[in-house]
């Protein structure tokens, strides 16, 4: 029994003993997160597929409806989200490099930028409600367009809404990381939660990288 | 790339790409965002969408490879990511091939 003790070079307290070593544990955690992200790709993928089909069917209405979105707010939000990905990457770096004092500021910056994104999104949604461009009983078909323009806005709200929900969950996860970081739980040997939330946050950024051109830019060349 | 088998001493096998590459990727993403907005207003005919998608794919690759440390990740992780893209392609291609060819059969043309 006592034979089975492997080379026990100081593993962190979070080490699970069914793993050979910390590197194997880290790899398993990271792989699990990637598998989850694969399911997310297909989750969003269903909506992207619906978008592709209806955009091909109602090209003119999709282009016209897309031009009613505020391109400045969309581009601004894209920049904000890219910046938040940078601060997230820096938070992961700080936790892995043992720069403990930098972890929380970078996490806070990420939360702040994520909140700015959501605030701008709120303003955009508000405008859509005021202009009667929200699908449903109060939808008014925009001038020069036909009924399928409503379909574009349905997809717009579903896709950006699901994306925004992911951002809200992400901000919750980042807040949880801050609590853990305050307790000093992250060390160069163990920073898995920061690492995995980072993967999640960057994934949400990638979704927006595709949403921005597909929703905001598709009809601009017709202007 | 990392050591054989991907078992590094530090996180992500073989250490982090470093701060310089993070800021480099950030700059590239900002430039590509400006580029895609500019390109959207150009009259490229059928090429507007392919150009926009090519820029988006480039940006996504930069985020995945550098920010998400896919570069230097174990082969199994890369395999999983490639599989996800493949299945997404199946999802879209098979659906589109259905919708695109429905009118070919007179019975569905109504």
Task: Summarize the biggest pleated sheet of chain B.
Answer: none
Distance linking N and C termini of chain B: 57 Å
Structural class call of chain A reads mainly alpha
Q: Taking Cα atoms only, what radius of gyration of chain B do you get, to the nearest Å?
A: 20 Å
Sheet with most strands of chain A: none
Number of domains of chain B: 2
Question: Whole-Å distance between the termini of chain A?
Answer: 77 Å
Backbone shape of chain B: flat
**Strand-residue proportion of chain B:** under 5%
Give me the number of helical elements of chain B: 3
**Which spans of chain A have pLDDT < 50 for at least 5 consecutive residues?**
none
For this entry, give a set of tags.
heterodimer, A: 223 residues, mainly alpha, Four Helix Bundle (Hemerythrin (Met), subunit A), 6 helices, elongated, B: 110 residues, flat
Describe the protein.
The complex is a heterodimer of chains A (223) and B (110). Chain A has helices at residues 22-57, 59-66, 71-96, 100-130, 149-182, 192-216. With 223 residues, chain A is an all-alpha fold. Chain A has one domain (22-222): Cytochrome c oxidase, subunit III, four-helix bundle (Four Helix Bundle (Hemerythrin (Met), subunit A), Up-down Bundle), CATH 1.20.120.80. With 110 residues, chain B is mainly alpha-helical. Chain B folds into two domains: 14-70; 74-101. Chain B is 63% helix and 0% strand. Chain B has helices spanning 19-40, 48-67, 75-101. In chain B, helix 1 (19-40) packs antiparallel against helix 2 (48-67). Chain B is flat and about 60 Å long. The model of chain B is unreliable at 1-14 (pLDDT under 50). Chains A and B meet through helix 1, helix 3 and helix 6 of A and helix 1, helix 2 and helix 3 of B.
